[in-house]
Amino acid sequence: MLDESWAIDWWLPRHKQKLKEKVALVAIGTPPELVFIGDCITQGWETEGLNVWQRHYAARHALALDFGGGRTENVLWRLQHGEIDGIRPKVAVLIIGTNNTGHRRLKLSHRVTRLGRCRFDRHLAKAEGQTGEG
Description:
Layout: H1 11-27, E1 34-38, H2 40-43, H3 50-57, E2 62-66, H4 72-80, E3 91-94, H5 109-126
Helix pairs in contact: 4-5
């Protein structure tokens, strides 16, 4: 979970909302086929990039699971707490690591991101919702 002081008020409610969005898509018979998982870069689809999202991704039953400020370990937490459970996307776009650098100045941030990517792949392989090849 993201426990930075600036995120405490909105982060967990956003996670719960994203779980509801996923369930709603499945319930109406349009389970996500394209899933974006990441940070503020991809969260921008909901604001500045909304027109592009509507034009290119909405018809593909896309789901954006993106959180501004999220780090690799936060994405892993979200995956372990249901964000992709029960879905079988054809494609998952993963954007992680940006927030493991910068103000935190982690010397090992590239290793954290690489480890996160390996764990992400294993989580997908174990999940009922495996993506297609590639």
